[in-house]
Amino acid sequence: MHTNRPETTKPSASAAVLIEGGICKSPAGRLPDEARVAAEAAYDRAATSEILRIDESTSLAELNAMDLAPGTTVLFRRGGVWRGQLRAQSGKPDHPITYGTWGEGPKPIIQPSHDASDLSAWSQEPDGLWCVESGATADVGNVILDHGDSGCLFRRGSRAELLRDREYWCDPATLRVFVRSEKGNPASRWSSIELAEKIHGVDEGAMHDVVYDSLAVRYTAAHGFGGGGTKRIVIRGCDIYWVGGGYLYVDKLGNGVRYGNGIEFFAGAEENRVEGCRVWECWDAGLTNQSNAPGSIQRDILWIDNEVWNCEYSYEFWQQGDGGTADDVRLFGNRFRDAGSGWGHVQRWNPNAAHLMFYDTSVPTPGFTVRDNVFARSADCLARVFNDWRGEATFAGNVWESAGEPVCRYHGRPRANLVYKYPDHLDQIHCDDQAEIESQGSGATVFGATEAEFRRFEATFGFGPDSLRRG
Questions:
Q1: How far is it, in rounded angstroms, from Cα 58 to Cα 15?
Q2: Whether residue 349 sits in one domain with residue 393
C-alpha cells in the first residue's frame, strides 16, 4: 500500500493503532476506566493522523462510527476477518479516504455473514427439518459450506418445498433457516456454515473520493460493493466472491426475485475505476454499472485488467430513464471466463449466462468502448444484446473463445419508444419468454460460433476487428 502523503503515525505491526468507540485500546481489550483520560488524549493524536492501522479488535461498526478526515488511510491487518458491513466515508478531490492493508498474509476479509457451524445451535423439527436462528436482520440469500469447498445449499421458496437433501428455506417472518439434511445435524456434516445476509459487503452509496486497495469481500446475499450516486471511486486489487442470492423483491406470481453483483455502480456514477480485481461465484454479474433512474449520469467509468469467472454474467450494462446518459464507459483488457459455471446458474428460474449482458438501454452511450478483452466459454452464449448498438459502441481487439455456444444472441429491440423495458418487466412476471422479448423490434438473430457467423456479427454492428477461437 502506498500513499503520496507522509505517514505521521508509524506503529509497528506488533503494536498497531487500534481504535474503538473513540478510544485507543490495546489488542487485549478495552482500557480500564482509570486510563480513559490518557486514552482519549491518545485517540485525539491518532485521529488527526493520516494512517490508522487496525486489527480485528476494532469492529466494522466502530470503524464506521469514526469521523475520518479527507486524506485518511485506514489499513486492515492482513490475515484478519471482519464480520459485518463496511460503510465507506467520503474524502475530497486529491485527498481520498483509502482503505488498504498492513502486515503479511492473505488479504483482509470483510464478510456480512453469520456463522452457523456450532452443533448446539441447530435443532431438529418434528418433520425432520433442521433449524437454526440466523442472527440476521435481513433475508438469508445463500448458505455457503466449507468456504465453498462443499458448495452451497439450494434455496427453495417455501418450507413445503424442502424435499431433497441440501435444500434450505429462510422464513421471512423470523429469518430462521430451515434445512433438509438427510445425514444429520448440518454442523456435523460441514465444518463451516456461513449464512449470507442481504446486505452489501461494502456500502458506498452517495460516497465520493474513496480508494479500496487489496481487500477481500465475500459471503453477502446482496452486492460485494454496492451503492448509487458515486464519484471518483477506485477499487484496486480486490477479491470479491460468493456474492448474492437475496430476494430483491417478490414478483406478481409471488416468487422471490434474487439478485447480487460483485461490484455495482448504480444510478449516478462518475470518474470511477475498477482495476486488477478478481471476481467469482456471483449470482448475477461480476461487474456492472446500471440505472433505471431518470436523469442518471454515468460518465468516465473504467473497468481494466480484471478477471471474472463463474458468474452468470461477467459484465452487465443497461441504462434507462429520461435525461440520462452513459459517457465514456470502457472495458479494457479484462479476462472473462466460464459464465454460468457458478453456484447460481442451476438455481435460477431463467439461466441465461453471458459474458456481456446488455439489457435494454434507451440513453446515449458516446465513447462506450470494449477493447482487448477475452470472453472465454459460457453455458449459454458469449454475449446477449437486447438493443441495436450500431454506432453506439466501439469493439476492437477482443478475443471470443467458444466451446460451441453462440457468440451472440441479439433480440433486435429498438432503443426508443419501448413498451416495456428489461430486466425489470421480465422479472415482474417470472417468465423469460423470447417471443415476448422480441415482440417489439426486428432483426432478432443468433450469431453462431463459426468464422462466417462471427464476421456477420462484426458486420451487423460495425464492430471489430476482433478474433474468434474455439476453446
A1: 14
A2: yes
